[in-house]
Amino acid sequence: QLQLQESGPGLVKPSETLSLTCTVSGVSIATSSSYWGWIRQPPGKGLEWIGNIYESGTTQYNPSLESRVSISVDTSKNQLSLRLSSVTASDTAVYYCGRRNEVDVWGKGTTVIVSS
Amino acid sequence: DIQMTQSPSSLSASVGDRVTITCRASQGIRNDLAWYQQKPGKAPKRLIYGASNLQSGVPSRFSGSGSGTEFTLTISSLQPEDFATYYCLQHNSYPLTFGGGTKVEIK
Fold this sequence. Notes:
The complex is a heterodimer. Chain A is an all-beta fold. Helices cover 0% and strands 50% of the residues of chain A. In chain A, strands 2, 4, 5, 6, 9, 10 and 11 form a seven-stranded mixed beta sheet that branches. A four-stranded antiparallel beta sheet of chain A has the order 1-3-8-7, with no helix packed on it. In chain B, 0% of the residues lie in helices and 50% in strands. Chain B starts with a strand and ends with a strand. Chain B has strands spanning 4-7, 10-13, 19-25, 33-38, 45-49, 53-54, 62-67, 70-75, 85-90, 97-98, 102-106. In chain B, the strands form two sheets. In chain B, strands 2, 4, 5, 6, 9, 10 and 11 form a seven-stranded mixed beta sheet that branches. In chain B, a hairpin with a 3-residue loop joins β5 (45-49) and β6 (53-54). Chain B is mostly beta strands. Classes of the chains: A mainly beta, B mainly beta.
């Protein structure tokens, strides 16, 4: 059964880099023929697509975040990663990883607070 | 970017009511649309994909319709467990975009 689990620091200081990992179990990212992506949800607000990566390493990013975001895959660990630089309080959110553009499987999410 | 306008933003309904939620795309997206249900503190759950295909395991009281720019999610008979927030997502072109959400509350 496919499962995704996000992990990473729950607290990040302003101007620093947010780094999260999504561990995938039940399917190999390397042979999945799928996109894998990140979505976030600020407290009390709606969902925002951050970006995705194909198994080949090709990425797509939301233009609103493109200058600060990087998504990568480590097929040896079956993980995808998110890095978001120069964070501010507006980056405080629950961060989800998911499979496919029409996200069919979601991780449970991890809360990241940006605060000094 | 394709804008997804979802309406209403909230609604109050009673158990047994028929509920309809609409998403309008700023340009045609064929049927590249999914619907999600989200309960507080939980990840979204996909209900509908390809605009009208019911996700496996989702009750048949949920249905989706539409193509192009107008899409509808219908709950034929609202159940207590359906009180939640619903979102649409277009995956026709990048950046992927969500509707603003519809919160379904108990009347």
